[in-house]
Amino acid sequence: MTKVLTMGEIMLRLKPPVNERIIQTTSFEANYGGAEANVAASLALLGEDAAFLTKLPSNPLGDAALYTLRGYGVDTTRILRGGPRLGIYYFEKGASVRTTSVVYDRAGSSFAEAQPDEFDWPMLLDDVDTFYFSGITAALSPAMASALQAACGYCEAHGITVVLDTNYRGKMWTPAQAQATMKTLLPHVSVVLAHDEDFEATLGIKAFDGDETRGIEQVASFEAAMREVQRRYPNIHTVGSILRDIRSVEDSDWTALLLQDGTLSRAVTHHLHVMEGVGSGDAFGAGLLHAMRQGLTGEPLINYALAASVLKLTIQGDINLNTDAEVKALMNHAGAMNR
Amino acid sequence: MTKVLTMGEIMLRLKPPVNERIIQTTSFEANYGGAEANVAASLALLGEDAAFLTKLPSNPLGDAALYTLRGYGVDTTRILRGGPRLGIYYFEKGASVRTTSVVYDRAGSSFAEAQPDEFDWPMLLDDVDTFYFSGITAALSPAMASALQAACGYCEAHGITVVLDTNYRGKMWTPAQAQATMKTLLPHVSVVLAHDEDFEATLGIKAFDGDETRGIEQVASFEAAMREVQRRYPNIHTVGSILRDIRSVEDSDWTALLLQDGTLSRAVTHHLHVMEGVGSGDAFGAGLLHAMRQGLTGEPLINYALAASVLKLTIQGDINLNTDAEVKALMNHAGAMNR
Amino acid sequence: MTKVLTMGEIMLRLKPPVNERIIQTTSFEANYGGAEANVAASLALLGEDAAFLTKLPSNPLGDAALYTLRGYGVDTTRILRGGPRLGIYYFEKGASVRTTSVVYDRAGSSFAEAQPDEFDWPMLLDDVDTFYFSGITAALSPAMASALQAACGYCEAHGITVVLDTNYRGKMWTPAQAQATMKTLLPHVSVVLAHDEDFEATLGIKAFDGDETRGIEQVASFEAAMREVQRRYPNIHTVGSILRDIRSVEDSDWTALLLQDGTLSRAVTHHLHVMEGVGSGDAFGAGLLHAMRQGLTGEPLINYALAASVLKLTIQGDINLNTDAEVKALMNHAGAMNR
Amino acid sequence: MTKVLTMGEIMLRLKPPVNERIIQTTSFEANYGGAEANVAASLALLGEDAAFLTKLPSNPLGDAALYTLRGYGVDTTRILRGGPRLGIYYFEKGASVRTTSVVYDRAGSSFAEAQPDEFDWPMLLDDVDTFYFSGITAALSPAMASALQAACGYCEAHGITVVLDTNYRGKMWTPAQAQATMKTLLPHVSVVLAHDEDFEATLGIKAFDGDETRGIEQVASFEAAMREVQRRYPNIHTVGSILRDIRSVEDSDWTALLLQDGTLSRAVTHHLHVMEGVGSGDAFGAGLLHAMRQGLTGEPLINYALAASVLKLTIQGDINLNTDAEVKALMNHAGAMNR
Amino acid sequence: MTKVLTMGEIMLRLKPPVNERIIQTTSFEANYGGAEANVAASLALLGEDAAFLTKLPSNPLGDAALYTLRGYGVDTTRILRGGPRLGIYYFEKGASVRTTSVVYDRAGSSFAEAQPDEFDWPMLLDDVDTFYFSGITAALSPAMASALQAACGYCEAHGITVVLDTNYRGKMWTPAQAQATMKTLLPHVSVVLAHDEDFEATLGIKAFDGDETRGIEQVASFEAAMREVQRRYPNIHTVGSILRDIRSVEDSDWTALLLQDGTLSRAVTHHLHVMEGVGSGDAFGAGLLHAMRQGLTGEPLINYALAASVLKLTIQGDINLNTDAEVKALMNHAGAMNR
Amino acid sequence: MTKVLTMGEIMLRLKPPVNERIIQTTSFEANYGGAEANVAASLALLGEDAAFLTKLPSNPLGDAALYTLRGYGVDTTRILRGGPRLGIYYFEKGASVRTTSVVYDRAGSSFAEAQPDEFDWPMLLDDVDTFYFSGITAALSPAMASALQAACGYCEAHGITVVLDTNYRGKMWTPAQAQATMKTLLPHVSVVLAHDEDFEATLGIKAFDGDETRGIEQVASFEAAMREVQRRYPNIHTVGSILRDIRSVEDSDWTALLLQDGTLSRAVTHHLHVMEGVGSGDAFGAGLLHAMRQGLTGEPLINYALAASVLKLTIQGDINLNTDAEVKALMNHAGAMNR
């Protein structure tokens, strides 16, 4: 089995227990996660041979992050060690009308400080047929954007598929910066994921009017944006996107669109009681990639990816702890028994 | 006050805290429960003189199971001690579209290995006017089915009412096996509880088409099945059944039907936010039995049983920790104050 | 900045974790709260200079209550120390159709036993421009009602605004007792809060028919009652009231009315998934007071107060841990993102 | 089997977890205990038929206290229900040089407020051959002392053995008050337990010089005091006493003396690492009583009682959760394996 | 780097939190461990390439056990899947004079039920230079003893070193059974570990008089037994043994002896405050093996093994979470700073 | 009452629960502490008017740190807000022979990045009579050393006493750097605290040979070093120092020396079972300062300071949660009762 390599930052996630706020808590639940790490772990749990590339400090926090991923079956042998620290994000889950709030403390992390010449691409991409990263990695530093450039170039030269989750983070860069960087990467990419404001912020193509309570009715606008992506970058054969109506922290409807070589498919709509919204985009990416590698296309493909994504909404922690069988069970069965 | 005796297996229930999955948890909440044990404990809390019959290992796990029931007021003096182990079930609560998952580890338990001649029915049924068991006990082993045979025979000969919750478990036996065993027991039974697939699997009478998102609209089919039960077994004067629309792990509507000597009554419908689905059938059985012993019939009877059942959906642990006053309060009041 | 002084009892609140019932729990979460303490803490977090007046025992429980308030920024220098004990309330949160249940254990507390002559009003009300208390304080004892009488008299004489949350507690006194006491206090009051049965029980003016599942449709009756309050006590220039449709412990809609010098304003309606109902009236009072002091009137004023109130429903513990910025964010934005 | 009845107050015990102090904790571990309740529960776990007499409020706290004892096998059918509240004690465990600290909040409890005429002694003492209480019960109120007078009189008249643990509590009464009350009870007593300052405070006989770091070397003085007890009250055939060298919260040596009809026996000395000091006197009383009922005398008797007592020092919660087999194992084996 | 393969059963370990007893606990801490699994994990953390061989059920419990080991770096690719269940052991930690108590619930586990022909030795031992197992594996079933026979034969034929930790368990077999089985395995073994009663029970050579409070003074007797082992089995070039004075659950002294080709070495003595005694023998085995592979002999070798062993006594869970650097730091430094 | 101002960094402290290691934990206990913050909080709890000066980020972590100190009574009104982040330290408590391990993650914190011109000394030192800082603050950055220079100069010019805890941290700077900086500060200082390697590393005066298992026998060398400090800096009228024999993480003896204007006093020796070693130096500093302000000198002074210090060893979290009465109780009483 050939390998998928994902590249990005994994952080310590600190979350107050049971809906407490940061200012009142006396303990934090500790998890380790990050967009591309989540994708690697989910791929491994779905049955893929997945490796993760990052740089971790040589201390117990770095060890714990590595052990977590290795436990779920991720190949961690390509991870670099050293540098100053492990990044952190504080995750304060919202409830009802109180929105979830995240405090990032990731500046100066070992991965963010890594330099392009630390990455030996021929060795790191050996045996790899798919390379996956998100806009977060590109946003970390100009050095990291350079490293991605080198990696994408190597991939194109060696027939390795590149998957990009655009994953815009307004706390890390501006749309102008994001678009400038993305323009240098997109010509190498085959599969693109973009949701909500990602289209406009990272691709400069408006799909979403910003009203998250009625995303699903904007399906035509999303489709147009997806087609525009393929028009601009004919190398991108697949575009996937989640659409949501978010009524409160807990209560939302989710569907998804897939554009494959000009053909649009739409997933069913799931009505959801959300436990934890973090990582559902990563679960979508892993699900889409796994289903593609299993040979699915069109509606089954997008339904699989969406089922993986919404199952993540029921999981504590960044990583989608669901198996291929569980994703398929949800695809084949709308309701859910309570025993 | 005469006594109700329930007979069955009580297990250690291990549940990951706060919606964690088994593969990620570092601790389990420990409860002790099982269908007939739950019924006995609920009866005691509702005010009945209830005894429980099982066999428990002579170790601290067996002690803890016994102490739990005794604490809630169950007469535990008829419990046998000895044998190899206490059965376990791992309870992984689902959320939203992720279904609840149970791993049974009950093979080789002290109760499952018990032999018919260990049960001294004249002594065990002394002072008892009602004997309650479920299909789970019958499914445990041929020896246990024999023991139940002996008990039912003794009951019939001594005017002790027999109550059967059909409680089909597809992981324990096949419909063919269940029906064969039930046929030998049903002639001794006066009260039968059956829900969902129980009718078809244990009685061979189809009531439910398997679509749990729309059980309530199948009321006519349930009624027909209930009438057919009484037609076949005129000794069964009372049949009770729960009907549900289950939209997700948390979100469902519940109603219930009662057939008493040919007269059908229907309970009100409750809209519910389910905390824990386990044990609601047992709570229904205990509620029905207690209300019958209080002299209720018809609509009040089935409304009481259903109120007891849906209150269980708000409780952590197998046992329905609600009192007679609390069940009545729900019967008399639809809404619920949040202070 | 001049100061708001609130006066009342702060108690140790003991709550079983994660929806357990009192009879099954092996631990209690400990918080410190009480109507007027909650108001003071919320005011401090919203940016006001707020002081709290009570009497606390000279033991670690009294210390802990004081430290909690001081931590959130409340001026605790006017608190008296001594007396027998800290009052307690056991808070058993309901779920779905099981109602929340509270066991009070507050008799004989240091504050309830305090005598009028322990309160040196000129010193205690120095620098204060607003004095806030609720009907709970008045209900504690005839001595406490006398103390409030003295305080209100001093306020009126010195131009200090008096705010009264009528806050009827049927476990503490009867409507007749409440109305008799209130009649002596209301002539000194400028701002009155009353919800649900408060109008009838404490003011003798019927606003609400008792059906909490349909409070919002009774808006006309509430308006009439509010106008009647101003008619009887022209000194009361502002009346605020919350109206709710409560469908279950978790599920409800909330709106609010404001009558200011004869002009009625109505807030938007929030649909809510309630985490904890306690203290939402106190959060409303603090929000209303803060917004008034910021110069808001009419719809913005009542929308601010309601937003503060419903945000409290998402918080663990008695105190509304939301800032002015967070209240405003909810006012300006209906939905809520889950990341 | 005839029955032992113990009489006293059972309280909710609230303890901060893991050595936290009250002023910093955000939760309390909840147990239910009290001197005589602990004795009843330990007796039941050792195999005796033990009943407990108290008065509990008709609320979930009272229920929980009752369920706890019933779970461990105590006959709770003689418990009265009603009255204002359940008493509480806050237990802040010390460590090393920081002493353990207890805050009592027991005033006004249902039991403390109970009146002598609520106790129907012929019914309560039916089937009982031994009546056990401690000085704490006598100290609660003059009414309770009267009730004990009546009980002791009934016992003497009906051949029921009375056991008294003198158990002096300086926070409840003075030595003068204690001695005055004790003088009225001691003529009815057959077995007396007294430790440390109990001799002087409750009996007016000095045994201990107050230096708890060197109690064991004062053995001669303890023996003299024990003999003086028997000299003054020839009806007291048995006196038991624990002697300790307490070097820190964790580190101490324990031994014990027994005077039976003039013959002194001394137990071995145990070197201990104390987990929780509460309830070791109660465990001693239960151990002594059980061993006497088993027919032990002299050294085996006092060694059994002491082994029971020091095993309690390894247990969380007020009740000595050790069985007869475990006590005997310690008697017969000095060391302790760590696997 | 060549590989070490260890073979045995890994179980779910359930432990009440913070010194609670099983009969009182409401939760269990969950770990996964077992003698040979612990050795493999410790070897991996010390820097070896270690693989573990067992059979795990195809359910989430089996997954969790596998993920745990894989996380710590164990090669889990040779683990068989299938069979009925994961074995359990309940671990009730003692304190002071209360001994630790273990309830095994391992009968019928997937590994215990595995048959010799499920083990394809040429494949399983490929790339392996050391094979490690303990007497526990041999005791599981005659089938497992046969499997070990086959493995040992294959090892001898292919120059793979066999290491045996005799690890006698009186709850699994008798000395006679143990010795009969061991006689068939010992001729293939090169390294033997034996402690305490292991010598007599599994080898029929008395070393220890059974008094665990004074094991260290029996050093001469241990030495004689170790020499006798080498005399009987000249193929055994190395024998290692721990000697202890155990004064209580927490308080003990540990030393160790090593006999290598006739030369005896003795380790320093550590005075210890034990947190958890489980797995210290496994930590010793892993330490000894790793140090041997690093080329250590004599005193440094046995000091390394003992340091690894006693560090385990400070760790929660079965697995010795200490690195090579930490073991060496203890070897080189007696004391321990508290910051 | 005049005020003490302490200045330094407060961090989030993350500690795995119950002796877990960082690599295995799934949660961290959260406290907020740092040398000078601990001193301020302890002073406040001892009864002083204490203020703390630092810079905290404008986010919930900064709020929580501030609220914690304010809760314990520290004047937090002089704290600056802004900058990038709150520093963190991970605290992995050791046990027995496993040493405690700390991972610092404090680079780039708001306080470490603060510039000298942000500190308006006339305003910050208004009403202050004592200024306290430790070597940690000086080590943070050259800018911070400059700020301290300015503060010390201002203090000297305005008669404000300067207290310095030398507090050497080898992870922050070298002895050469420390000594160079200290030389510029010491001429302004009146009271110096130095323990263990502090003398040599920060003052260039050898007192301690590095063997922490036998610090107390080096009393003569410590005395000589203390006298040398006063010889070099006659402005330093008081030098305090702790001496320890540390046998393991839990087990140690502590004493202390005080040199006041040439007169040496020695404290009693405490034998301790340490729960948590962090912050005992800060507790010593606060104790010394409070006792000096109470007018104590000589032996009572150093005994008070040491009693405060060793009481901290029994407390969870960085802050010494003991009152003046509790410190005095330990001074007056060697042993400790376990009830």
TrEMBL record, chains A, B, C, D, E, F:
Matching SUPFAM superfamilies: Ribokinase-like
Domain Carbohydrate kinase PfkB: 1-320
Residues making up the signal peptide according to the UniProt record: none
Keywords for this protein: Kinase, Transferase
One MF annotation (Gene Ontology) recorded for this entry: kinase activity
Family named by the database record: Belongs to the carbohydrate kinase PfkB family.
PANTHER family linked to this entry: 2-DEHYDRO-3-DEOXYGLUCONOKINASE_2-DEHYDRO-3-DEOXYGALACTONOKINASE (PTHR43320:SF2), SUGAR KINASE (PTHR43320)
Name the UniProt record assigns to this protein: 2-keto-3-deoxy-6-phosphogluconate aldolase and 2-dehydro-3-deoxygluconokinase
